[in-house]
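## retry 2 of 3
previous attempt timed out at serialization; input unchanged, resubmitting
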Amino acid sequence: MTSPAGVRHGQSLVVESIAEQLYRILCERITTGGYAPGSRLDPQAIAKEFGVSRTPVRDTLSRLEHDRLIETRPRSGTFVTRPSRQDVHEVCQVRKGLEWLATGVAAEKMPSNQIADLRAEAVAALESAEKGDYEPFFLSDTRIHREIVAVTGNSRLVSARESVEPFVYWLRVLGATGRHRLAGSTRRHLEILDAMAARDVNAARAAAETHLVEVEEWTLEDMASHAIVT
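## retry succeeded, writing output
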């Protein structure tokens, strides 16, 4: 699976925005499985690896903890989070609220050619998945949800969606809504996009809600069956 940050292991940092770069690198390592759930993070080792002071490391770890990707245990240290059923429920609740609203707005605002492009990409991605190439689906999935929120023009809504995106990506890498779920997800994506193309706000919102309810159900099922490795 393609890394969201595209940064190589051990890559040197430039002077500008060290904390931001460090956040992206460590976030990538967590969400792509480079740091396994439950593994311990050594702030001193991180600082030494990248040749930075403890300050940007401390700031980065604080941000990752805010994202619920790591946790600090008193007298024990800092560890990569092990996602729980409650984590899944909370993230999906946030997505339901944000994307239900955003899909209604997008049904009125998104240009028809953009909807058609997203739909064509979703269909092509499913065809690729049926031949064993799953990357196009994951790219299409991310793009659909991201552009629906972006088209609202609401910067706070976009920021709220971005705050849970690393966790959503991480669950996918761990096994949630994986390859065996692609056809179901694509079906819902097409329902959402077709309703948007018809400018049917209620139908688009209903399809989005159903999709996200199913995503939560599938993720919890995968977690119960140990398809999600934590």
